[in-house]
Amino acid sequence: MLSVVARPLGLGASCCRGSRRAIATVISGNKASKLVRERLKEEVEKMKVQFCGFRPSLVVLQVCVFQVGDRDDSNLYISTKLKAAAEEINRVLCCFGDVLQIGIDAKHVRLPNSATQDEVLHSIMSVNENQTVHGLIVQLPLDTVNHINSELVTNAVSPEKDVDGLSCINAGKLSRGDLNDCFIPCTPNGCLELIRQTGVSVAGKHAVVIGRSKIVGAPMHDLLLWNHATVTTCHSKTPDLPEQVGRADILVVGAGRAEMVRGGWVKEGAVVIDCGINYVPDETRASGKRVVGDVHYASANQRAGFITPVPGGVGPMTVAMLMENTVQSAQRFLLRSQSHG
Length: 341
Ligand code: NAP
Ligand code: LUD
Fold this sequence. Notes:
Bound molecules: NADP nicotinamide-adenine-dinucleotide phosphate, ligand LUD
CATH architecture of the largest domain: 3-Layer(aba) Sandwich
CATH superfamily of the largest domain: NAD(P)-binding Rossmann-like Domain
Oligomer: single chain
């Protein structure tokens, strides 16, 4: 079996502490996501055989500027999602290597940046009513010239199709610990999966989350709490961030601040999960930029027991968890239709 955690040659994660420098074990999101996608591919194949060609179906709604050759962050994330689901090469301009396609029927619906709030809500309603679609996400942020209330938009997605887990119904269930009766947001769910891969149990640990957004920090707090960690959530007004970080057995960072968490803050042996995706200038690259996380990797991997890289850590797991939620939604749909008829 593929090993998701990779120990650097010759150095263990927990040995050599003290006089000799130790290097953290790397938790590969690329490998972990591949395992998830392989499992989902099998599940989708079984559904197809059992239910006469049935396929889970996902709609990704985007409000954006229409531009040929457009390749901003949102387009990159969406094309990664569409690729992981099934072949949909329309407008996908980037080159992907080894992408395992699951067999989900994924559609990209684009509305122009001139779309009004009512038009966006109307599109969501029509997908809500379409019985052949099992999952709907509205990619954020909305790139629009009009004022659109994104809270209203995410809450308009039917809770049964809300595979992003961002509607207040799903968020409320998660906050109350109803983990088996909701969709868990993809990034926190991916982080938990990566923590599981380390073999470190969450129950009884002190977890620290940096960030309290609806998409990363807040649901991560809830998920760790209901997996029985004692959780501290930090944000921009937390006065003593380094001290809080130093108490973490498990640290999850989603602040959007390039390399903010320094290695010296990190508790020896901690599990460090870095959600950050920040583009910083790099003249040595043809693109003129490179992606770094919210954790200063080079120093943190000298203290942590386990660490996720950026890229290749949380990002690919976000995509895999979207696929997982879509397959789960389709399974729930089949169960409902069986019980109705
Ligand atoms: P966000 O909505 O901007 O939220 C950032 C959070 O970090 C806020 O709660 C903010 O505090 C807190 N924060 C900002 N500066 C801080 C500081 N100096 N000290 C402590 N806390 C601070 O961002 P987001 O959507 O959660 O995303 C966070 C990062 O994760 C970004 O880099 C984003 O690109 C990345 N991301 C990655 C994935 C993935 O799949 N890998 C998915 C989603 C997001 P306040 O609440 O006080 O403002
Ligand atoms: N909106 C997301 N907005 C942005 N990185 C993602 C993401 C893949 N409604 C809604 O998908 O879950 C969402 N739901 N988000 N994000 C960010 C956020 C959303 C971020 C990164 C990746 C999805 C990803 O695959 C790769 C990696 O980290 O290895 C490549 C990173 C790179 O730019 O090279």
